[in-house]
Write a structure and sequence with these properties.
Layout (H helix, E strand, L loop, with lengths): L2 H11 L1 H34 L4 H50 L2 H5 L3 H19 L1 H24 L1 H7 L3 H38 L1 H6 L3 H27 L1 H25 L5 H13 L1 H29 L18 E8 L9 E8 L4 E5 L6 H8 L7 E6 L2 E2 L5 H6 L1 E4 L10 H5 L8 H10 L3 H6 L17 H13 L5 E5 L7 H13 L5 E5 L11 E6 L2 E6 L1 H7 L2 H16 L1
Parallel strand pairs: 3-8, 3-9, 6-7, 7-8
Antiparallel strand pairs: 1-2, 1-4, 4-5, 9-10
This protein binds adenosine-5'-triphosphate.
């Protein structure tokens, strides 16, 4: 979609606001062109001494009233147009947010957060300006231009008007050349601002790491380079925009010289009155605004076009995970991974190389294996964050891609390796997926996740603010809050992706015991590096380089004397040394 189509559709939907603004503009333009005419007549009246003092005062009062009316109408149309333009900004931001919220990890894999933020703020502002200020100046400028030209040609002298307009085609050519430069400079400036935004966002997110490594100095040098680039690009854009002004100035000077030459000649030969020449000169002055408006509109539109060219692909990009499933029932029952193969985008080695596994309802499947073996990736196939390149995941005999995404995801409680705490109270963070949960429910799951006592020790207990604006919790506390959050859902499948890595072995055992006791038919997939967490699993699969290399129950795997057995012995030894 082009910017003009977007604006056209928007104006059609909000036609009332635009028509009202256009009517007010028309009234203003009429009054504006009427004033020079009245002034010219007044001057001629004064020169001929045909005006009485009373009449003169009335005429002057009339001019003041016209000025005031123009003032109020200008306020009115601005309010109409800007309100409409802000609405476009809101619509685009909501649309962008919904799109970003629906996109999967494969999309974020290729996007920079700071760039996305810049598009959601700076670029949308530029489109909003095209729908507001550019429309306003465009309407107003063209209306004034038409009426002023009509008054010049029909109301005063067409020969004078024809001569005055001679330099205008040159101005149009100059504007056309400048607008192309403004487009290029705007694109450049928006991109550099994105790069700067991205750096600031990354720096703030990783500020602790940077400080710990003593990299603030180096990082601020990079920042100053990016800030300078962004400033230079913005200055370049301003420079091209400023070039519109001298073009207008030169055109007007040329037009005035031509007007005065021919006008003087006509007055000399009594074909034009002094009052008429004065009116004409005032009209010429009134052309300044339409000319500036044209330059301004062109640069706003070019900036809007450059911004839209960055926003449109984002808004029209297909979802990386399409929700084309139709099955509305909540999945439950037997879960089957059948010959799953998957390679991440832009990677040359398979993360999953033909994995087949199954999990009966109510049972626990454990995935273990060295780092990078593909354990989390297998869960991502089930969560439908990525599509397997071949093979299928079936739940209750139905391909998970055939379930409605919402239905599928609500059947799983997922605790990722790194969970996110929002800037809210601890209670609100736990009740994230069930905001109407009672305090008793919240405390019950916090006890199951063995975090209740830790929470009570915090200054405001469950009301303690956490996340970016609150107290910092330890890694282990965060993990347990995330587990409590997951337990609040009644989902039939619980996925723990290394979700206990930061808690000590004793607490881990305590949580797993709680989970086992309150399982109530819930299935579970546990990914863990610590084998003590999986000894009770109904089935354990050892993954290596995307393949299942060993599988069975704990005792069977110990007897097999492979990777699992040696890892088990090592971890047992380590645990006994720690005691
Ligand atoms: N987003 C990604 N983009 C590209 N490659 C990835 C991505 N995530 C994982 N990989 C690669 O896929 C392979 C499997 O990774 P995965 O995270 O599934 O392993 P894992 O067994 O869960 O490891 P860990 O125990 O360290 O969490 C690894 O080679 C990893 O480098």
């Amino acid at each position: 979609m082009t910017l003009f189509k977007l604006l056209g559709d928007f104006v059609r939907r909000h036609w009332r606001a635009y028509i009202l603004a256009a009517l007010m503009l028309f009234a203003v333009a009429l009054l504006t062109v009427w004033i020079p005419r009245r002034v010219g007549q007044l001057i001629d009246g004064l020169v001929n001494k045909s005006l009485s003092t009373d009449l003169l005062l009335w005429q002057l009062a009339g001019l003041v009233a016209m000025g005031l009316t123009i003032y109020f109408l200008r306020v009115g149309w601005r309010l109409q147009l800007f309100t409409a333009a802000y609405r476009l900004g809101i619509e685009l931001r909501v649309q962008l947010y919904q799109k970003l919220a629906a996109q999967g990890p494969a999309f974020y894999h290729l996007q920079r957060t700071g760039d996305l933020m810049a598009r959601g703020t700076n670029d949308i502002d530029a489109v909003e300006m095209a729908a507001g200020e550019a429309m306003l100046a465009g309407f107003d400028g063209s209306m004034t231009l038409i009426l002023v030209l009509a008054m010049m040609t029909l109301g005063i002298d067409w020969r004078l008007a024809a001569v005055a307009l001679l330099p205008f085609p040159l101005m149009a050519f100059g504007f056309w050349r400048l607008s192309r430069q403004v487009h290029q400079a705007s694109t450049d400036s928006l991109e550099r601002f994105s790069a700067l935004n991205d750096h600031v966002q990354e720096t703030l997110a990783g500020v602790r790491t940077l400080r710990a490594l003593g990299l603030e100095g180096r990082n601020s040098k990079v920042l100053s380079g990016l800030a300078e680039n962004a400033a230079k690009a913005s200055l370049n854009e301003q420079r091209w925009e400023a070039a519109f002004e001298p073009v207008v100035g030169m055109t007007l000077t040329a037009a005035s010289i031509l007007t005065l030459s021919l006008g003087g000649y006509l007055v000399w030969h009594n074909q034009l009155s002094i009052g008429e020449l004065t009116s004409f000169s005032m009209y010429l002055g009134q052309l300044i605004w339409p000319m500036f408006a044209a330059g301004w509109v062109l640069s706003l539109l070019e900036r809007g076009k450059a911004a839209w060219a960055r926003l449109d692909p984002l808004l029209s990009q297909p979802l990386t995970v399409d929700d084309y499933g139709v099955v509305e029932s909540t999945p439950n029952g037997l879960l089957n991974f059948d010959a799953i193969e998957f390679t991440y985008p832009e990677q040359n080695h398979a993360a999953l190389a033909g994995i087949s596994l199954s999990l009966a309802a109510g049972q626990t499947l454990a995935l273990v294996g060295p780092t990078g073996a593909g354990k989390s990736t297998l869960l991502r196939m089930l969560l439908r964050q990525y599509h397997p390149q071949s093979g299928t995941v079936r739940w209750n005999g139905i391909n998970v891609e055939d379930y409605k995404l919402q239905q599928l995801r609500s059947a799983m409680s997922w605790v990722p390796q790194e969970s996110f705490l929002f800037s809210a109270s601890l209670a609100e963070n736990i009740a994230l997926i069930k905001p109407d949960a009672t305090q008793t429910e919240i405390e019950r799951v916090a006890k199951l996740a063995a975090v209740h006592d830790d929470i009570l020790r915090l200054p405001q207990g469950y009301a303690t603010p956490v996340g970016e604006k609150g107290v910092s919790l330890s890694g282990g506390q965060r993990q347990r809050v995330a587990i409590a959050r997951a337990l609040l859902s009644d989902a039939p499948l619980l996925l723990l992706d290394d979700a206990l890595s930061a808690v000590d072995t004793q607490t881990e055992t305590q949580i797993l015991d709680h989970l086992r006791d309150t399982k109530q038919g819930r299935s579970m997939i546990i990914v863990s590096h610590r084998l003590s967490a999986v000894v009770d699993a109904n089935h354990i699969a050892v993954l290596k380089n995307g393949k299942v290399v060993e599988s069975g129950k704990h005792q069977e795997l110990v007897e097999l004397d492979g990777w699992y057995a040696s890892q088990w012995r090592y971890q047992q030894l380590e645990a006994s040394l720690e005691e």
